[in-house]
């Protein structure tokens, strides 16, 4: 079968390139260039820092067709039991970053990120129920240690 007879059967027409034919069929493109509008067209969750301008989401190769929604700020919690590190401005306390993220329409996740050094990072990914139970257990242990529980 020649290319022209294939095109006649599929409706691609003379000279139509494959990407144009796929677009005509309603297929999504497979190539996305940096700076282009994100292919995710569904609205952001209300807490997303880009909810006012969802086209600015970067295209992540791990999930290129789904936007990564994050709030404007992550939270950093200082860890007093660990050594700090010297930095250009002074000393940086050890910390754990607490962040919220959601890929497309999947369930939101809480991530706890501890940067040990340039080569090593520990990440815990929690569902919302996991995070609530962890917060409850931490609060319970703190209150127990401080004698605030009856
Ligand atoms: Zn978003």
From TrEMBL:
Compositionally biased spans, kind Polar residues: 1-10
Organism's domain of life?
Bacteria
Annotated spans, Disordered: 1-29
Which residue windows does the record flag with biased composition (Basic and acidic residues)?
A: 20-29
Q: What is this protein called?
A: Uncharacterized protein
Q: Which organism is it from?
A: Nocardioides nanhaiensis
Provide the taxonomic classification: Bacteria, Bacillati, Actinomycetota, Actinomycetes, Propionibacteriales
